[in-house]
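G., the chain you wanted modeled:
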Amino acid sequence: MKIIQGIQNIKESITYPVLTIGNFDGVHLGHQTIFKKVVDRVKEVEGTGIVFTFEPHPKKILFPDKYIASLTTFEKKLELIEKTGIDIVICADFTPDFAALSPREFTKSILVEKICVKEVFVGHDFNFGKKREGTFGNIQKMGEEFGFKVEVLDAVKINGGIVSSSFIRDLIADGQVSKAARYLGRPYSLAGKVIGGCEVGSSMGFPTANIEIRDKLIPHTGVYAVQIVVQKKTFNGVANIGYNPTFKRNVLSIEVHIFDFTENLYDQTIRLSFIDKIRDEIAFSSREELKIQIQKDIKTAKEIIDGEID
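Predicted structure as tokens:
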């Protein structure tokens, strides 16, 4: 998959461009459905499948006070898009000037004149251009004017609920990671560097890797069954997200105990995939009580993960 960073770097002619537009945070099942439509159409017309996206997330520029952490980093988003069979990702630099483009300016100057688009696939909730004034109705009319086809796809629903990035964020923030996975099409994951901790777990016989927290969407406090990727190898484990009320630390942390693993991970970046929540975070009256509960959590996590694998 080719990546074009910046509209100014679209320099070569593209064979019959079939395109979709959006931020595609999370690359969830709704996004994947659109990408599949693009890829299938490209096979029919022997064209080029294109995802037109933005970096940084528009909300980070337009509403910095309201911005929330994304479901995926830009790098992870590209990795997920590539797996769908898309040929090219064009990533626009989302600046105030770019945000000020009217729907017509965006369509004419970029889609038509720079890309020479032939077909566009968009979702049911598609908006674009200055203040999100452009709708699928607008782009359909401009398609008729400039000579490209537009197809609007229906919402993807699971158990009656519309698949959307905002809904998935809410699920994760509430700790409903197994439900979020059904909408994402995979477990929610985040990556972080292993940093030094208080080594309370190690002192009780359960060494943990403490994950650096930086601008990440963190699931609700509690204990989770997780899978961990370390140097391209996958391990099972249990993660605690919280404030360590038993020891009154009062600082949010992510601590991961990796089963059957003894290597030093300091300063390495690892990726956690959240399989299911085991329980809420609670304060224990003693270290021994906490140790007994950790043993129960490990047993439960193994049962959950074994069930997922089976």
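The mean pLDDT is 91.

Shout if anything looks off.
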